[in-house]
Amino acid sequence: MAETMEVEAAAEREAINSVICQLADPDGNQLGAALYLPENAGPKELNQVVNKLLSNEERLPYAFYISDEELVVQLGSYLEKNKVSVEKVLTIVYQPQAVFRIRPVTRCSATIAGHTEAVLSVAFSPDGRQLASGSGDTTVRLWDLNTQTPLFTLQGHRNWVLSVAWSPDGKHLVSGSKAGELICWDPQTGKPLGNPLTGHKKWITGISWEPVHLSAPCRRFVSSSKDGDARIWDVTTRKCLICLSGHTLAITCVKWGGDGVIYTGSQDCTIKVWETSQGKLIRELKGHGHWVNSLALSTEYVLRSGAFDHTGKQYSSPEEMKKVALERYNKMRGNAPERLVSGSDDFTMFLWEPAVSKHPKTRMTGHQQLVNHVYFSPDGQWIASASFDKSVKLWNGTTGKFVAAFRGHVGPVYQISWSADSRLLLSGSKDSTLKVWDIRTKKLKQDLPGHADEVFAVDWSPDGEKVASGGKDRVLKLWMG
């Protein structure tokens, strides 16, 4: 009897075919040699293998992809369903996942009136503790997120406040107006730090701070304007240090990269890359056939949040902050160059590695209308794009390959924002709703109606706890899990 059982067990082992697999990271670097894995191995077993091969002290979570599609079943079922030959070496890409998990927002926790005109911009502070909103009523408001009440109304602008930007150390807030003026504020007191900064001749289209891992405490930021110039300012001396001029039409967006260069996107169809000690033009990225509307960096989340993460740890000194921010930046960037994605009125996007080449890595097509906003997920794995064609599209952050389309909005999508764990995506639309999309299932996770009119601005707090939205109905809404 025992003998037959042994024979059967041996036969069973024979029956489980093995698959030749090659594990690789998102950049294509192979992890060890090809392995023979049993067909009944799935994501759980692959997790064990990768943790072992990487000699991780603590087990880290990974997701696995075969030709850009997440592996959620055993290898055998995948091969059968996709009619893949067992003889071929199967490349499986492992992607590290955030160890923490953000709860999806499901309800509106506060509707805060106060602004007397449309809310045009909203931004959480890097530590997620404060929120700023800019409005057509010429004010900036700071909100206390614990009591969900107004903290300060910042007065000083004479025209619509089009953009607000927190320094990544959380110490300063800068707002830019339709009149081209910039004001620096102390978020602790709500008071302006000196007079408005003047120099731009037309309205402000973007503000971006120098990353804290390059300089702490934060002093320099760059602003872009419809006048075609970008200007670097010092918040301490309140002077314009450098004027970056060379674009022939309006600059629509600006980003200060982790390597210390500045990127500007313009209606002249080009993206220019500038060094920041003298303001010299380093290179020009050409390819778009119409206005460049939006730029995003693969490292944007860590650049924005600096030393702050989902744990809410506070720091006592600029030195400590700089050190932690640098560690976070290096870990996020890995060995690959910083990537840039651009979205345009020509309905397309380009993925660039500006430090490596002035030619795009790939052209991303599929939208039927202008691309209004592009955004990398915090882990750099995905790119999301929002378009006037009412859709949000998802792309591979390394290759730029199309992954999925999220449909559900019935009006143009104005702005998108990611959850800190890169698992959920938020979109705000002209159709007055916010929607939360699940990246794993590629489906709508939550529909958030509630605004009475177009939603112009959305932001998901870097600590993952809250979402803020504002729009034409003049109210600010806070949403919770």
Automatic annotation (TrEMBL):
<comment type="function">
    <text>Guanine nucleotide-binding proteins (G proteins) are involved as a modulator or transducer in various transmembrane signaling systems. The beta and gamma chains are required for the GTPase activity, for replacement of GDP by GTP, and for G protein-effector interaction.</text>
</comment>
<feature type="repeat" description="WD">
    <location>
        <begin position="112"/>
        <end position="153"/>
    </location>
</feature>
<dbReference type="Pfam" id="PF08154">
    <property type="entry name" value="NLE"/>
</dbReference>
<feature type="repeat" description="WD">
    <location>
        <begin position="448"/>
        <end position="481"/>
    </location>
</feature>
<keyword id="KW-0539">Nucleus</keyword>
<dbReference type="GO" id="GO:0005730">
    <property type="term" value="C:nucleolus"/>
</dbReference>
<dbReference type="InterPro" id="IPR012972">
    <property type="entry name" value="NLE"/>
</dbReference>
<protein>
    <submittedName>
        <fullName>Notchless protein-like protein</fullName>
    </submittedName>
</protein>
<keyword id="KW-0677">Repeat</keyword>
<keyword id="KW-0853">WD repeat</keyword>
<dbReference type="InterPro" id="IPR001632">
    <property type="entry name" value="WD40_G-protein_beta-like"/>
</dbReference>
<dbReference type="GO" id="GO:0000027">
    <property type="term" value="P:ribosomal large subunit assembly"/>
</dbReference>
<feature type="domain" description="NLE">
    <location>
        <begin position="19"/>
        <end position="79"/>
    </location>
</feature>
<dbReference type="Pfam" id="PF00400">
    <property type="entry name" value="WD40"/>
</dbReference>
<feature type="repeat" description="WD">
    <location>
        <begin position="244"/>
        <end position="284"/>
    </location>
</feature>
<feature type="repeat" description="WD">
    <location>
        <begin position="197"/>
        <end position="243"/>
    </location>
</feature>
<comment type="subunit">
    <text>G proteins are composed of 3 units, alpha, beta and gamma.</text>
</comment>
<dbReference type="InterPro" id="IPR019775">
    <property type="entry name" value="WD40_repeat_CS"/>
</dbReference>
<feature type="repeat" description="WD">
    <location>
        <begin position="406"/>
        <end position="447"/>
    </location>
</feature>
<feature type="repeat" description="WD">
    <location>
        <begin position="364"/>
        <end position="405"/>
    </location>
</feature>
<dbReference type="InterPro" id="IPR036322">
    <property type="entry name" value="WD40_repeat_dom_sf"/>
</dbReference>
<comment type="similarity">
    <text>Belongs to the NLE1/RSA4 family.</text>
</comment>
<feature type="repeat" description="WD">
    <location>
        <begin position="154"/>
        <end position="195"/>
    </location>
</feature>
<dbReference type="InterPro" id="IPR020472">
    <property type="entry name" value="WD40_PAC1"/>
</dbReference>
<dbReference type="InterPro" id="IPR001680">
    <property type="entry name" value="WD40_rpt"/>
</dbReference>
<dbReference type="InterPro" id="IPR015943">
    <property type="entry name" value="WD40/YVTN_repeat-like_dom_sf"/>
</dbReference>
